[in-house]
Write a structure and sequence with these properties.
Helices cover 36% and strands 25% of the residues. It has 329 residues and is an alpha+beta fold. The chain binds (3R)-3-hydroxy-3-methyl-5-(phosphonooxy)pentanoic acid (PMV).
């Protein structure tokens, strides 16, 4: 197979409104349940891949620095999957850059592996359909399967070995929503990586079984809300689902506590503003930051209010993002 020159691809991060929290197969990264997310146009990863016969090993550069050993191993393991699919056995040079709010500590594995999947397959001469790309990106990070697509995205848990993929969801809300991201505590790295935390929760939390029963119901209700264009209903489900996910982690033994005082202060402010008629619903991932689903009209007011909270170090308003795409040179 002919090896193409360097290929650059961009992908947006996404925030789950119905969370992925638990795997049914760790080696294939198959989720235990489905999930639903919104792509964020303000959080983008750009990745360039070039297969180079001169290289003895993959050379991986993240945000202008050689990748740390653990990150480099994950990227090489992922490139091995691409090499297996393309038949191109040579090593690659990978350069990846996150265009995220400065020192945010926000997770970039979703956008990172989606951009890597697209750039690496194209550089290897392989043209995957979006669904195949989503299945491949999932192997890097479960949430990366969703970052292949733009706007609202539904991830299917699947039932067989390799049928867990994401697909976009049409909704009249697509242009109206915004996500306000309140970064808490600067760029401190995550206390517990999500893959370890999920495994620990699934193994030890007495609430995990209830979580697995809850997710399909939340997904169905959230999809109904999307179909009707009902932001209030969608936001209500998203906030409740995030709190339920954190409840499972808090009840694990020992419990996983991701929140800081400012996390609670932001949740309190969001609820207070909501009582005053502002469209605002909080969601939190495996970290202290709070992301608030809102409308285009209410996003500036909300952002202004959150900036004043002690411990909030940055606030960004994001519009929905588009699908992963190759950057034409
Ligand atoms: O894709 P991972 O392995 O980083 O897991 C993502 C987990 C959450 O961010 C907490 C939830 C989600 O659905 O994105």
């Amino acid at each position: 197979m002919a090896v193409a020159p360097a290929v650059t691809a961009r992908a947006c991060a996404n925030i789950a409104l119905v969370k992925y929290w638990g795997k049914r197969d760790a080696s294939l990264n198959l989720p235990a349940a489905g999930s639903l997310s919104l792509a964020l146009g303000a959080l983008v990863t750009e990745t360039t891949v070039a297969f180079d016969p001169e290289l003895a090993n993959d050379v991986i550069d993240l945000d202008g620095q050689p990748a740390r050993a653990d990150a480099a191993m994950r990227v090489t393991a992922f490139l091995d999957l691409v090499r297996a699919q393309t038949g191109v056995q040579i090593r690659a040079r990978v350069t990846s850059k996150n265009e995220f709010p400065t020192a945010s500590g926000l997770a970039s594995s979703a956008s990172g592996f989606a951009a890597l999947a697209l750039a690496a397959t194209k550089a290897g001469g392989l043209d995957l359909a979006p669904r195949e790309l989503s299945i491949l990106a999932r192997r890097g990070s479960g949430s990366a399967a969703r970052s292949v697509f733009g706007g609202f995205v539904r991830m299917h848990a699947g039932v067989a070995s390799e049928d867990a993929f994401a697909e976009p969801v049409e909704t009249p809300l697509a242009q109206r929503v915004r996500m306000v991201i309140a970064v808490i505590g600067g760029g401190v790295p995550k206390q517990y990586a999500s893959r370890d935390a999920m495994e620990h929760t699934a193994r030890t939390s007495p609430l995990y079984r209830a979580w697995l029963e809850l997710v399909p119901r939340d997904l169905e209700a959230a999809e109904g809300a999307l179909a009707r264009g009902d932001l209030e209903q969608l936001g209500t489900i998203a906030e409740a689902n995030a709190l339920a996910m954190h409840a499972t982690a808090l009840a694990a033994r020992p419990g996983l506590v991701y929140w800081r005082p400012a996390t609670l202060a932001v949740i309190g402010q969001v609820r207070g503003l909501r009582e005053c008629g502002v469209a605002a619903w909080a969601t939190i991932d495996a970290g202290p930051h709070v992301k608030v689903l809102t409308s285009e009209e209410d996003a500036p007011t909300l952002a202004m209010q959150l900036r004043d909270i002690d411990g909030v170090t940055a606030v960004t308003i994001s519009a929905p993002g588009g699908p992963a795409a190759v950057v034409e040179t």
